[in-house]
Every structure is written in structure tokens, then in C-alpha cells.
Amino acid sequence: GGYFPRESRSPPSSLPPPPRNSRLNSMATEAQAQWVLTATGRSPTNIAVIKYWGKRDEALILPVNDSISVTLDPDHLSATTTVAASPAFPSDRMWLNGKEIALSGGRFQSCLREIRKRARDVEDEKRGIKIKKEDWEKLHVHIASYNNFPTAAGLASSAAGFACLVFTLGKLMNVNEDYGELSSIARQGSGSACRSIYGGFVKWCMGKVSYLLVKAEKLNWLKCMFFYSKTIEFDSILVE
Ligand SMILES: Nc1ncnc2c1ncn2[C@@H]1O[C@H](COP(=O)(O)OP(=O)(O)OP(=O)(O)O)[C@@H](O)[C@H]1O
Ligand SMILES: C[C@@](O)(CCOP(=O)(O)OP(=O)(O)O)CC(=O)O
């Protein structure tokens, strides 16, 4: 469906020169050190109709209440992120809307760490690229992301941005986790990001995993209102 994050792998447009003393000797010969592997993804933002207010765990970003959001059309509000890995990159770096930003914050570091942990072997026979699972710990990434709407202006760019970052890094590193797991990682970037991994109407449960309740295109607004009231009833029955 059009609401889900999209991805593609593409060849690099230009190759940076290899470093003189690559620390990745075990992994790459001089010829191999020329390569850049990239993946691109796009994720929509989401707006809460029942909001998430407050955290019971600040580091893991676990909320004090359930929330429900509607996923917006990615043509109107989305983040598009390209991630690239190369033995030529000496450190992880990121550019947001064309301007370099620091990746040193705990939220970015959590997402990078959790995705790297789950990385798997990647092989591109045609280009002679072979990355072993354990190589991903040493291999650095460059990330470039653009939002097609104002950043940090109350429209949940962090939701689209972290969902897109986690999803796209996962594609690059051949991560084979389900959406629930990716959502839990995106949540550590920004709480509301866990809902942007899905499409349609999404309920983020207080627990660790959020999940898709129902896809928007299957509903009309009248039915949606009915659906919300049923959801709330159902939850309060569960709470009792
Ligand atoms: N495309 C992106 N990729 C990665 N991170 C992003 C992206 N866009 C925004 N961010 C991160 O989210 C931060 C902005 O989040 P912030 O919560 O301040 O604003 P918002 O999410 O746009 O608005 P609000 O939370 O009020 O709805 C940025 O400083 C950056 O760290
Ligand atoms: C108020 C909200 O609209 C957004 C605030 O959540 P964020 O996800 O931006 O906050 P952090 O988890 O601290 O990154 C509530 C919602 O449910 O979207």
C-alpha cells in the first residue's frame, strides 16, 4: 500500500577515493574499498487523534498511555532518507535537509546501535561486494534525509524521520525483523515514530510493541468514529 515505507537499493552516483590506511583490511582490498552501498526509503508522518502524553521510561521511550494516530499521505508529509555505507567513510555522519547535524545524541545512537546489532551478511556479486554480519560494527554510514514539510514545526517530523531512518538502515544492513521490532527501535528515536512504521490507523499500546489496527483505505469517517469508540470501550473493559 502507498502508506508504507518504501525502499530501493541503488548504485552510487560517484565513488569517494579510498583511504590510504583503511582500518578494514580484513574486510576489503584496495579495490573493494572503492565501493559505496546505498538504500533509500520514504516514510510518512502521523498525527495522533488520541495522544501520547508522557513517558514511563525515558530511555526506551515507553509511554504512560496508549495512543491512536492516522498516517498521512507521504506525497504531502514524509521524510526521504538515503543511507550509504563504505569502507571509505571514517565516521557516521548525517545531513538533514542539506545541513550536517550531530549523530551523537542518545536517540540517534540507540537507533544505529539496535539496527547494527541485527545486521546480516550482504553480498552483491556483480559489484564484488561482500559484507559479513560482523563487518557492520566497523563499517560507517552517511545518512542524508529530506522532509517535504517543515522540520521541528509541530508536524511530527521526528516521527517520519526516525521511522524512515530505522527502516532504511534496516534495508541497507539486510535486517530481517518484522514491523513490530522495527517499530520498537524507531520508538527509541522518537516515541511517535513507532506509529509511522505502519500505515492507516495505528494504535500504539503501552507495551513495547505497537501494531496496525486497521488500514485507512478500508474505512470511511463515519465508520472510523464508530471504530474509535469501540476501541476505547474494548480497552476500558480490558483495564477493568
Ligand atoms: N528526516 C529526519 N530524519 C531524522 N531525524 C529527523 C528528521 N526530521 C526530523 N528529525 C529529528 O527530529 C527533530 C525534530 O523533532 P521535534 O519533536 O522537535 O519536531 P517535530 O517532530 O517536527 O514536531 P512535533 O513533535 O512538535 O510534532 C530534529 O531535530 C531531528 O533530530
Ligand atoms: C504531542 C504528540 O503529538 C507528539 C509528541 O511526541 P514525540 O514523539 O515528538 O515525543 P518524543 O517521544 O519525546 O520524541 C503526541 C502524539 O501522540 O503524537
Automatic annotation (TrEMBL):
Q: Enumerate the spans annotated as Diphosphomevalonate decarboxylase-like N-terminal domain.
A: 44-208
Indicate the enzyme's highest-level EC class: lyase
The record's GO molecular-function terms, alphabetically, read: ATP binding; diphosphomevalonate decarboxylase activity
Domain of life where this protein originates: Eukaryota
Q: Where is this region: Disordered?
A: 1-23
Cross-referenced SUPFAM superfamilies:
Ribosomal protein S5 domain 2-like
This entry's Enzyme Commission designation comes to 4.1.1.33
Q: Which UniProt keywords apply?
A: ATP-binding, Lipid biosynthesis, Lipid metabolism, Lyase, Nucleotide-binding, Steroid biosynthesis, Steroid metabolism, Sterol biosynthesis, Sterol metabolism
The record's Gene Ontology biological-process terms are: isopentenyl diphosphate biosynthetic process, mevalonate pathway; sterol biosynthetic process
Looking at the UniProt record for this protein, which Gene Ontology cellular component terms does it annotate, in alphabetical order? cytosol
User: What InterPro entries would the database entry show?
Assistant: Mev_diP_decarb, MVD-like_N, Ribosomal_Su5_D2-typ_SF, Ribsml_uS5_D2-typ_fold_subgr
Family annotation (PANTHER family): DIPHOSPHOMEVALONATE DECARBOXYLASE (PTHR10977)
Q: Which family does it belong to?
A: Belongs to the diphosphomevalonate decarboxylase family.
**Protein's name in the database:** diphosphomevalonate decarboxylase
